[in-house]
Amino acid sequence: PGPKTAEYLQGSFDNESMARGGGKFPFVFSEGKGATVKDPDGNVLIDITAGVAVNSVGRCHPRVVAAMTAQMNSLMHASDISNVRRTELAKKVAGIMPAGLKDNCISYFTQGGSGAVETAIKFVRKITGRNQIIAFHGAYHGVWCGCNSLTTGDQYRKGYGPFIPGVIHLPYPYCYRCCFGLEYPSCKMRCAQYVDYVLNTPYTGADDVGAVIIEAQQGEGGYVPPPPEYLPMVKKACEKHGALYISDEVQAGAGRTGKMWCIEHSGVEPDMITWGKGMGGDMPMAGLTIRKDLAALIDDHSQPNTFAGNAVTSVACMTNIDILTENDRALIKRAAVLGEEIKDRIREGAKNTRIIGDVRGNGLMIGIEMVEDKESRVPLGRDDVGKIIMGMLARGMIMVPCGRFGNVFRFMPPLVITREHAMKACDILLETAAEI
Ligand code: PMP
Q1: Is the CB of 142 inside a 6 Å radius of any atom of ligand 1?
Q2: Among 115, 358, 415, 426, who pairs with 110 as Cys (CB 3.0-4.6 Å)?
Q3: Model confidence over 104-123: pLDDT tens digits?
């Protein structure tokens, strides 16, 4: 960091809680445009994080800024009743939902993903009259009291319990580190069979499951895509038990994986979707969208939220949706193509290193798992991971890791990133990793 950045950092450390996600990460945002950001000293960096999968259409998109500016002159806050913009947004969201929900759903608006998941938990209880929920190892669904119970990860849980009762965690299909010690496809999807076993066998204790909540590609848990058969098998197991299927698309949605919704890669029709991040883009806008017949079972006035459906954030969200879906979803389709190019480039470079163990993911939701060596697959230690991140920062690129061991680099740039910047970012990653 330069002198101005260092001063801001100190001011931040002295006055803000470091419980925040970024902790003491040594960067200060001053400006952001498209897929680049500037710090207070004027350094321009490639933004490979998109504010953690948020800025899908790029930072400060001129059309979003113009639409918000116009809206600011007429109405912003309207508390939790109808306003013209939130109603328009609810209709627009209904039109872009995947099969099963499209034009047959009701939306509930929040300001972030945690609020959406929190609401889903309450709604599931009311709709089904059941109080168990199945979530998965490596899952991240937010850190409020309810949703934190679904989230895994020692840093979020240890010392913060007790959590809500009735949560059952099962293995996510993490093929690179299969907890059953099996290999795809000879495994015959043991992990999916296990979900069915837990849900549909007497004496497993899962007798009252109202819903299964799952990320169609795991985010914080390490950018892990499941094998193609997995989600359809889970859906079948849910149907047998009479449990609802919730797709948490907060991180993987809004076009990031090369489809509007990540679940669309599987053909599964969810009963509910939680969404956020890329939908609001630069603005805090998230929500829960649920099937109409299920929504009819929720009592009026049972879940108030003062800032829900703010007219300005609604406009930002609608403009984002327009940009993502116009020209036959060209930007989303480009994410799929560019993502393949990035994976190819990293895989090619990985041949010359010992420490890039796995390159995976859909669209621009790419995980690069770093290891001590490819044979042992021992996760690369935190010191080395930290050195690479700082090396990338010094070379002009922001990277935020994820994964159970904090050893997965994630390529989640704005979908508008230029090909040139994307390839440059691959080279920076490979060069820096080669120094370890
Ligand atoms: N669900 C998923 C899948 C997420 O990735 C996140 C955030 N990383 C959340 C929920 C919580 O969202 P927020 O931080 O906006 O509350």
Answers
A1: yes
A2: 115
A3: 999 999 999 999 999 999 99
